[in-house]
Structures are given as C-alpha cells and as structure tokens.
Amino acid sequence: MQGPFRVPSFNSYVPRRLQPWIYICFAFIFLMSGGVYGGAMSQVMGEYSLMREDVLMIIMFNVVGVAMPFPFLFKMKFYFTNRQLLLNAALVVAVCNFLIMFTDSVPVMCVLGYLAGFFKLCGCFECMSTIQLWMTPKRDFTIFFPLLYCLVLGNMFLSPWLTEHLIYVYQDWRIINWAMTGALLLVALTVYVTTHDFHFMKPLPFVSVDYLGCLLWSAVMLEFIFFFNYGEYYNWLDSYVMRMDVLMFVVTLYFCIQRSRYIRHPYIAPDAWKYPRLVPLLILFVFVEFMGSTPKVLQTAFTGGVLHFGTFTTNVFNFIEWVASVAGCLFCLFWIKALRQKYTRLLTVGVAAMAAYPVMMFFLIDPGLPIEALYVPIALRSFGNGIFFVTLTIYLEELMPFEHFFMGFTIVGMVRNGPISAMCSGLYGYALRWQMADNMARGLPYDSTNLLMISIRQLYGATCLIGIAVLLAFLVWDIQPVRSTLKKIPAWNFVGRMIRKEAKA
C-alpha cells in the first residue's frame, strides 16, 4: 500500500492515481440516474395524458427509495464484494431506466422508480465508502461530508438542467433514459473488465435484515406524500380517497412502531429515536425543506403565470442552483477547517442566505421583471441549502454512535427525502388558491394575472416573516451544539467485528 491510494479490487494494470477518479465518475453516474426525471415531467404528462400529481408521485417513489437502504448498507458491504455490489447496482438501475420507457402504468412506473432509487444509493455508497480514505486519510467527516454533498446536491440540480437540454435537442423525453442506461451499462462493463472479487476480511453472514420493516416504513412515507401530493386534486378530507389514505397511514405507522419494539433486529431500533438532540435536528431539516419548497409553487407560479417564461427558459435556474449549492458545501469546508468557527454561526449564515431569498423575491415581484434579476436570490437560497445539509449531517454523525448512525440517516430521510417537501408544496398550493379566492372576493379592480401576482407577494411576505424569525433565533443562540473536535471514527475491522457480534446476537 505504499505510494498513491489504491483500490484493492482493481486489477493491477489500472493506474493507481486513476482508480479513485474512476469511482468518482461511477458515483456521479449513479447520482444522475433515476426513473422518470424531473426535467421530463411536462413531456411525460403530455404523452401519457397523466396529471402533474401522477408524475410527481413517480418521482417521489424514487426519492423515497434513496432514503431506505441505509440500515442495510454495511451488512451488504461486509457480505458482498465491491465488484458484486457495483455490478448489481448498475445493472438494476439500468434495467429500471430501460423498462420505465415502455410502460404507461403509473403503479409500474412507481415501483421501477423506487427500485432505481434504492439501488442507485447502494451503488453511490459503495463508491464513496471505498475511496473515503483517499478523500480523508484520517476519516475526518468534516472533510468527507462537504465533498460528498458537492456531488449529491450538485446532481440534484444538474440532472434536470441536463435533462431539459437533451430533450430540447432531441425532442424526446426518453433520450435521458437512453443516455443513463448507456452510462450505467458502461459502468457495469468497466467494473466487469477492470476489477476482481476481493474481500478485505472474512465475509459476514447476511442475516438480521428486516426487509418487511423497510417496506413498512417506505409505505408510511409514501402514504404521507400521497396525502399532500393529491390533496388539492381530491379536495383534501372531503374525499373518501384522502380519508382512506389517512387511515392507512395511521395503521401502517402503528405496525411499524409495534414491530420495531418486539423483533430482535428492527429496521429502525427504538433507541435510535431517543437521542435528546435528534428532535431539534429534525426541526431544522423541516425548516430547510420549508424554505426550499417555496420555488416549487410560488416561484413557478410567478415565472409561468405572470412572467410567462417557458420551462427551457427557466432551466438556467437549475444551473445556478448547482453552482451555488457546490459553493455552499465548499464554504462549509472552509469555515470548519480554515476558520475553525462555531457550527451555530455557520448555520446562522445558512439561515441568513435562505431567508434572503423570500425577502428579495417580495420586493422583486413585477410583471416586467427580467429573468436575470432572479439569479441572486435563487443562488442565495441554494447556497444556504448546501450549508444546512452539510452542517446538519456532521451534527448527526456526532450525535449518534455508529450503531444507530445509518438508522439516523433514514430517520432524517423521513423529513428530507420527500415527505416534508410534499407537505410544504401541498400547503403552499392550497394557500395560493385560497389567497386568490380571497382577493377576488374583495372585488379588487385587477385582472387574474395581477391578482395572482398580489397573492404570490402576500405568501412571500408570510415566508419572509418565518425566515426572519428563525434568523433572529439563531442570532441570539450562541451555544455550540457540536464540539470543535469530532469523535474518532471507527476503522473497518472494528465495524466488521461489531456487525459480526450483532449477527450472533
């Protein structure tokens, strides 16, 4: 192991200096992949005569699938080889991308989207965990997480930007699926040709895996998302469908809780919920999702209904968000490693950046606004979003021991991966409709476009008040919740012994 970093599973003819960069490319392709891509939403709706809510639900299945593998990841890593995991993940996601192009069944597309999300996270984790010591030889998560989220958050915005450009050129929404299928098959071919099976320790038995718990918690998240995604369409609780969804959510949640209490190795252990600072952490993630859901309703309504910009015109926002989110992640790295300032002050910077977005939008709303005027507020929101994601993940790692850390990722995913975003979008949509009706009932002497603009400004004003209130709370809170020196991260052999001991329990 002298010399440059080496991935043991690579064959000897692959240059050492190139090996980690190959895995970076693999992770990038996994993160770019999905089922139905957000940038292709309008084309899918038009071809299959689907509602917007249907396509959003398919995308949410993919997002939920990304949150669910975490409790299984290390068990898979210590049983399968790196080669097996990457080959299977690439092939499964490629098959899902391929099959979803040839079906118009929403339930089938949802299942394929969930599987694609599940296995793309497995592939990305295997890539990044393999090269972790190359990124930070001391396993310093204050270095690892900012660099990781440069890829994760960057791809969240790069994917729709690339999708819409490809669709504009080729005039077919399937082009992105063909492109990602080809890229994933290239990943599988590269892994097959350049790697060999390698176990860095004796394989551990693949036992104590709560598959049913994974499905039940997935169902809880999806039932919650369904309620807020279809709430406007079904008129909320006035509909029998919505009432049945609420009943199913309560019953499924009850079974999840009871199952975790009475089986030996639950998907999420009850003790994982008992950390005293977990609830404040989840509340902060709720705030991030709340502030991030604003553009999904208000900004879209403004650019489409008032400014009359098309989807390809507004696609430049995705590129700005990509650059700004990467800048936010790198700013976290600079703040923690170079400036060595408090984490609460870093979060305050993030809150200030996110609160600046609705404040600026409130004053910018005008029927003749040029698109360039929106660049700065959008960049500030994405910059703050990047700061929050990195800092809160570092906080989560410090808060929970290794035994529950990856369960904590799934717990956070119940807030971050779809449910709260869907709830906020649904409530914003309802509030916009209610505000429009209220303004019309007042008999204001304006046409529908001006009434829509006034309603959007009023909701941006309410968002401003919430964002400023949270910012003031951070300004008066000068208590450092995370130690400057983070705890020591366990080595792989120690983790393997822990999993072996758990398997024998």
How would you describe this protein?
The protein has 505 residues and is mainly alpha-helical. It is 73% helix and 0% strand. It contains 22 helices and no strands. The longest helix has 30 residues, at 141-170. The chain is globular, with a radius of gyration of 23 Å. The two termini are 35 Å apart. The model is unreliable at 479-486 (pLDDT under 50).
Number of strands: 0
Mean pLDDT: 84
Helical percentage: over 70%
Unreliable segments (pLDDT under 50, ≥5 consecutive)?
479-486
Q: What structural keywords apply?
A:
globular, 22 helices, 505 residues, mainly alpha
What is the strand and helix layout of this fold?
Layout: H1 19-32, H2 41-48, H3 52-67, H4 73-77, H5 82-99, H6 106-130, H7 132-135, H8 141-170, H9 174-194, H10 211-229, H11 231-234, H12 240-262, H13 278-292, H14 294-306, H15 311-314, H16 316-339, H17 343-364, H18 375-399, H19 402-416, H20 419-441, H21 448-476, H22 492-504
Helix pairs in contact: 1-6, 1-8, 1-9, 2-3, 3-6, 3-10, 5-6, 5-9, 8-16, 8-18, 10-12, 10-20, 13-18, 13-20, 14-20, 14-21, 16-18, 17-18, 17-21, 18-19, 20-21
In short:
This protein is an all-alpha fold. The longest helix has 30 residues, at 141-170.
